[in-house]
């Protein structure tokens, strides 16, 4: 189960690693059919239940709303967290790009809504801390988006171990290269706003006063949590 920030990219990397697939194959398929979203009406729970095990399922739900099998340790959870400043910029661009949402407010207004927990799926601060409380659980792999760019090889090795797939050294090196190729394709896609996938894009849009306000809210809401993020790479 894949949750929240960077999930579009992570779902492709997970599919690549778990299936030993080629990145060019993924470009030709509808990845959402291979990893259906748990809470979406389409394709629906009935079809998800019919998938052959091991199933790959994506979700944005908070930990407490996930199926009991996950809470009981009977299924594996891969969670990806992204530093919230980049996340809110990417989230804003995403809202503006969707015809169904067509958000036309300013980034300042959007960021204020984010800090006040007024966006879809509720509070990011609660969401990420709830999963962080379970990051040591045997069936949970807690990943950071920034590590995908900083040390992809280590992340691929973590996924290989966690998913229980087997690669020799040469196959593992090839898989890391395939994942690099996939990330380059995703982050440089013409359909995306320029640089949406890079780390540190918040610096291009945050004003000094916005950054100070965000830091204050972040400290208030995350002060007791020992989870840390890279805001610069």
Description:
It is built from 12 helices and 3 strands, in the order βαααααβαααβαααα. The chain is mainly α and 233 residues long. The chain has a single domain, classed as Rossmann fold (3-Layer(aba) Sandwich). α1 runs antiparallel to α11 (169-187). It starts with a strand and ends in an 11-residue tail after the last helix.
Write a brief structural summary.
The chain is 50% helix and 5% strand.
How would a crystallographer describe the biggest sheet? 3 strands, parallel
Structural class: mainly alpha
Give average pLDDT, whole number: 85
| Fraction of residues in helix | 40-55%
The best one-word shape is globular
Question: Could you tell me the strand content as a percent range?
Answer: 5-15%
Top CATH class: Alpha Beta
CATH superfamily: P-loop containing nucleotide triphosphate hydrolases
> What's the CATH topology label?
Rossmann fold
List keywords for this structure.
mainly alpha, Sulfotransferase, 50% helix, sulfotransferase activity, Rossmann fold
Write the layout of secondary structure elements.
Elements: E1 2-3, H1 7-19, H2 23-28, H3 31-34, H4 45-49, H5 68-71, E2 77-81, H6 84-97, H7 107-115, H8 124-132, E3 140-144, H9 145-150, H10 152-163, H11 169-187, H12 208-222
Protein name: Sulfotransferase
Domain Sulfotransferase: 4-225
Family: Belongs to the sulfotransferase 1 family.
């Amino acid at each position: 189960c894949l949750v929240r920030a960077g999930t579009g990219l992570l779902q492709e990397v997970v599919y690549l690693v778990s299936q030993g697939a080629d990145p060019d194959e993924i470009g030709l398929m509808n990845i959402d059919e291979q990893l259906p979203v748990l809470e979406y009406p389409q394709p629906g729970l009935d079809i998800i239940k019919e998938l052959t095990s091991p199933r790959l399922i994506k979700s944005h739900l908070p930990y407490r709303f996930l199926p009991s099998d996950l809470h009981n340790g009977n299924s594996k959870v891969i969670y990806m967290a992204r530093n919230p400043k980049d996340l809110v910029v990417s989230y804003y661009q995403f809202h503006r790009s969707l015809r169904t949402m067509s958000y036309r407010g300013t980034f300042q207004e959007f960021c204020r809504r984010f800090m006040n927990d007024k966006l879809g799926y509720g509070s990011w601060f609660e969401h990420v801390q709830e999963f962080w409380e379970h990051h040591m659980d045997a069936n949970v792999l807690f990943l950071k988006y920034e590590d995908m760019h900083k040390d992809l090889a280590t992340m691929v090795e973590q996924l290989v171990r966690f998913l229980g797939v087997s690669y020799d050294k040469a196959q593992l090196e090839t898989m890391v290269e395939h994942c690099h190729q996939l990330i380059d394709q995703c982050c440089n896609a013409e359909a995306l706003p320029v640089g949406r996938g890079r780390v540190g894009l918040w610096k291009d849009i945050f004003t000094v006063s916005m950054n100070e306000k965000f830091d204050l809210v972040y400290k208030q809401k995350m002060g007791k949590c020992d989870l840390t993020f890279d805001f610069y790479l």
